[in-house]
Design brief:
Length: 227
Amino acid sequence: MSSAHHSSRHLQSAAVLDQIVGSGRGIGIVESLSAGLNTVRDLVFHRIHLDVERYFGMDSMCIPLSLDQSEYNAKAEIDIWQIIEAAEFVVESDFVSDADWIRRWLGELRLGGSYGNGPITERVGQYMELDADGRRRHFASCLEKVYPEARKSPLVLYQLMPFAVRIVVAVAFGATQQAAKQRDHQAFLLPGILDCSNCQGGVLDNGETCVECGNPVWNYNWLLADD
C-alpha cells in the first residue's frame, strides 16, 4: 500500500515507532494494530448491542436517549481498555520496553489529541492500579454504566477479550507463536470455538472476521454454546 493511502496520524505514529524499535516496519505494525483493534472494538459493541437485543429483546429501561452517543461512549470505553491491555502485552512480550511510552503512543494512535484529556487520564490511572483480573472487572463495570445492555452479555465475553487484544498485538508485531498461545487460552475458556467449520478457531489476520462464528469476537451462538 502506498503512503498516500495512510492517514497522517498513522504515518506520524509509524515514524515514531521506527525510531524506537528500529525495524522499519512501523507503518505495517500501525496499520495492523489499527485494523485489529477496530475490529475487536466494533465486534464487542455488536455483541453488547445487536446480539443482546436479538437474544433477549430490548429492555425499555435500557433504551438510550441517544443511540449514537451511547455507541460513541461505549466504543470509547472499549478503546481506553484496549490501550491499557495492548500496552501491557507489548511490554510483557519485549516488543517495546518503556511502558509509559508505549501506553502514550497507543493512546495517541487510538484517540488522537483526546487521549490526554481529564476523564480519559483518570480512567487510564484507574486501570493502571489494577492487575489483569481487576482491569477486566473494572472494564465490565465501566462499559455497563455507559451501555446498560452490556449487563446481559455472557461472562465469557469479558474473559475472552484480553486474549483477543493480545492476539491483535502479536499479529501486528509478527509474533505468530505468541498469537497462537493466546488463542489456546481462549480455547481453554470456550472449547467450542475450535469447532467452527469455516475458520477452525484459527488466528486470523488483523481486520479479518469469520462469517460463521464471529472470530475474533464470537457471536452469541458460540458464546452461549457451553453454558
